[in-house]
Amino acid sequence: MKINTVITYSLIAIWSVLIIMGILTIISPKWLVDLSNPGKNVEAITIKNAGDAYLKSGKYLEAIQQYNKALKIVPDLKSAMANLAISYQKTGNFSKAVSSFNQLLNLDPEYPEVIYYNLGELYEKTGQPDKALKNYLLSAKTSANPESSFQKAGYICMEKKEWNKAILYFKLAIKNRRSIENSYKEMLIIHQKAYSDTSYGFKNIQEKLQNEDYLTYLNDYDEVIFNEQLSTDIDLAKTYNNTGYCLALLEKYEEAVFYLETAIKINPTYTEARNNLKVVESFISEKQ
Asked: Is residue 108 in some structural domain?
């Protein structure tokens, strides 16, 4: 296998940025093209940029003022609307954050999975688990990397004591866990968003995704290095532990052992998984 360490680490770095759903800014170059009124748009973007500076320095109220000014000039400026929602979220004004995110969804944004994820977190914080679950699942449906969304869905079902549903979503998170194949696929999907639906570039990538032709390019990456970087994935260990916990509550002890042991294998210092495993093994002993 050809080793290309630089590309491999770049792939991991890109993935690391993309999975942080509570991102500071949601900006796409496509939002800044096809400007029907250059004068107004330049003015709005200048004001929006001032808002970005306030947002990055933690001056959220000032950022909100700037974004609202920009949106009065260009009401469908997606980058301003996205960052306005983030600013409201930062100030704890969750109702206005939800409203802004929902307005943004109506404008057909390039990355709806990020918006759905943020909405899920907002509904979770405001004690609306059903709405949170719905949005996490919408995020998973539209995301190139749905692992985190399925994890969140599983946690909500655990809180609701819906063990079978929790197991389903945790297993989906594991199925969609980070791998070199999934990460490369994610990069293609993100790259595809830069093209119009009728363009050659879009159709070419779509064909590769459907036929999984992209798998032939994976020899360009050092899979050993990639997997070593992910072998201590704490979130993945938690997902295995939670799956094992739910299975144990349903008295599926043998299957629970597998998931708990895997959690410990990923993170040998995972005390909670070790304690859960001891309890499950004691139940198995009692049955024998």
From this structure: no
Q: What are phi and psi of 27, to 5 degrees?
A: -125, 130
Residue 279 in domain: yes
Asked whether residue 253 is domain-assigned, the answer is: yes
- Which domain CATH number covers 282? 1.25.40
Query: Which residues make Cβ contacts (< 8 Å) with residue 283, sequence separation at least 6?
Result: 248, 251, 253
251 backbone φψ class: left, alpha, beta (φ>0; ψ -120 to 50)? left
In a domain, 273, yes or no: yes
Angle at 15 between CA 14 and CA 18, to 5 degrees: 90
| Angle separating helix axes 253-266 and 234-249, nearest 10 degrees | 160
DSSP states along 77-140? -HHHHHHHHHHHHHHT-HHHHHHHHHHHHTT--S-HHHHHHHHHHHHHHTT-HHHHHHHHHHHH
Higher pLDDT, 145 or 127: 127
Question: Which tens digit of pLDDT belongs to each residue from 170-209?
Answer: 999 999 886 655 655 555 665 555 566 667 666 766 676 6
Q: What does the block give as tokens for 1?
A: 């296998």
Contact 163, 250 (CB under 8 A): yes
Count of structural domains, the chain:
1
Which range marks the domain in which residue 237 is found? 231-288
